[in-house]
Amino acid sequence: MRYRPGLVADYESDAAIFKSNVQRFWFSVLLVAVVVLGLGGTIPLVPGLVDFSLQADLLLIGTTAMFASIGAIGLNIVTGYAGQVSLGHAFFLGIGAFTGALLGGVEVTRQVIDLDTGQFVEKTLLYGFGLDLIIWLPAAGLAAALMGLIVAPLAFRLRGLYLAFVTLGLVFLGEHVFREAKVVTGGVGVGRESGVPSLFGFRFDQPGEVFGIFLSKNQKLFFLGLGLLIILGLTAKNMARSKVGRALAAVRDRDIAAEMMGIPLARYKMIAFVVSSFYAGVAGGLLFAVIGRVEPLSFNLLLSIEYIAMILIGGVATVSGSIMGAFFITFLPRIVKWLAGFWMFGFISESPTGGFVTLAQMEQILFGGLIIMFLILEPLGMYGIWIRVRNYWKAWPFSY
Amino acid sequence: MTQFLQAITNGFSLAAIYALIALGFVIIYKSTQVFNFAQPALLLLGGYWVLYFGTVWGWPFEFAILVGAVFAAVTGIIIERTTLRPMVGKPVFAVAIVTIGLNTVITIIALDLMGVEIRQMGDPWGLKTVLIGGVTIAHRQIAAIITVIVLVSLLLAFFKYSRMGLAMRAAAFDQEVALTQGVSVRSVFAISWAIAAVLALFGGIFLGSGIGFERSAAVSALKALPVVIVGGLDSITGALVGAVIVAQAEMLTATYQSQFAWLSWLGQGFSSVVPYLVMFIVLLFRPYGLFGTKEVERV
Question: What pTM was computed for the model?
Answer without folding.
Answer: 0.87
